[in-house]
Specification:
elongated; 48% helix; disordered N terminus; 3-stranded antiparallel β-sheet; 3 strands; alpha+beta; Arc Repressor Mutant, subunit A
Length: 111
């Protein structure tokens, strides 16, 4: 983190949470998805899904809309253009972090 509060590796603060990153990545690859499908795909509880979607919605990364189906109402979650861009930037930042040289202390000790 730099003095001005920005991350030089573009790891987004909102997407730094694994569940949020998984939600956004799922939507990126699968497209608009119902909350029920997201919950099953990610293996999370309703509470976990709801709280993470709330944070993603507040950041402007996802939109939700209720759709009526023959089986009742369904909440559909869609990735916004901002969410798509932030995911790409975060993945690029993580790749940069992986390419950083290891410190000598992290090298395994060989005898």
């Amino acid at each position: 983190m730099t003095r001005d509060g920005t991350d030089p590796h573009n790891v987004d603060e909102v997407l730094a949470r694994p569940k949020r990153l998984a939600i956004v990545a799922h939507l990126y690859h699968k497209g608009p998805t119902s909350m029920a499908e997201l919950r099953r795909a990610l293996g999370v509880t309703w509470g976990c899904l709801y709280s993470n979607l709330k944070a993603l919605r507040k950041a402007g990364y996802v939109d939700t809309r209720i759709t009526l189906t023959p089986w009742g109402p369904r909440t559909i979650v869609t990735l916004t253009p901002l969410g798509r861009r932030k995911l790409r930037e975060t993945l690029e930042g993580l790749e940069k972090l992986l390419k950083l040289p290891k410190s000598p202390r992290e090298e395994p000790h060989r005898t």
